[in-house]
Amino acid sequence: MEYRLGNSTRIKASGDTLELTCPNCAKKVQFGVFSNFERRLAPKITLLDCNNVYFLVCPSCAAVYTVDEARGNSFKKGEKLSIGNFDLKTLKEFRAKL
Questions:
Q1: Among candidates 28, 84, 88, 79, which has minimal Cα distance to 56?
Q2: Sheet holding 11-21: strands in order across?
Q3: Can you name the residues that pair with 89 across neighbouring β-strands?
Q4: What is the pLDDT of residues 22-64, one digit of tens each?
Q5: Which of 26, 44, 51, 75 has the fewest Cβ atoms within 10 angstroms?
Q6: How far is Cα 89 from Cα 64, in angstroms, rounded to an integer?
Q7: Which residues are CB-neighbours of 76 under 8 A, at least 6 positions away?
Q8: How many other C-beta atoms can be found within 10 angstroms of the C-beta atom of residue 4?
């Protein structure tokens, strides 16, 4: 099984969230927020899918979740309240287009 964490293999730490309840283990923890290393040379070209994927890891049970790119960008700019319990989504399995 392969999971895609973005368009790049480089991962960058973005900080820790405020205390949230993990949907998997039900403990109140501060999730570590990470993203794929963002490199956009030509943002106007629509042929390339250049999304920055943000994912959160529970320090207690190692469950992995994702959030919308807009929420991740707000968090990266210092808005700690931009990610809440209802924003956590399961990371979808990546299937290559053939």
A1: 88
A2: 11-21, 28-36, 54-57, 64-67, 89-90
A3: 66
A4: 999 999 999 999 987 555 555 555 555 566 788 899 999 999 9
A5: 44
A6: 9
A7: 14, 15, 35, 54
A8: 13
